[in-house]
Amino acid sequence: MCPICGEGNACVNLGNKDISQSCWCNDPSITFPEDLLAQIPLAQRRKACVCRSCALKHQENKQVK
């Protein structure tokens, strides 16, 4: 679950799927800057993955400003 929105994060790296396939989070066009990661509650940092939707929404908001 995404620690920001609570939805599923679809992270292949945390699932039981074939991890030889590339997870969406390895896409070089998607970034995880510190100000995004700072939104994760302290208890979940380094334990939960942000979802693609939250990562992309954060990127879009940064580009608009």
What does this structure look like?
This protein has helices spanning 34-37, 52-64. The protein is mostly helical and 65 residues long. 26% of the residues lie in helices and 0% in strands.
Indicate the topology:
Blueprint: H1 34-37, H2 52-64
Global shape = globular
Spatial separation of the terminal alpha carbons: 28 Å
- Radius of gyration from the CA trace? 12 Å
Kindly state the percentage of residues in helix.
25-40%
The string of secondary-structure elements, in order, is HH
Number of strands: 0
Mean model confidence by pLDDT = 86
Percent of residues in β-strands: under 5%
Number of H/I helices: 2
Low-confidence stretches: none
What oligomeric state is this?
single chain
Task: Characterize the biggest β-sheet.
Answer: none
What structural class results from the helix and strand content?
Answer: mainly alpha
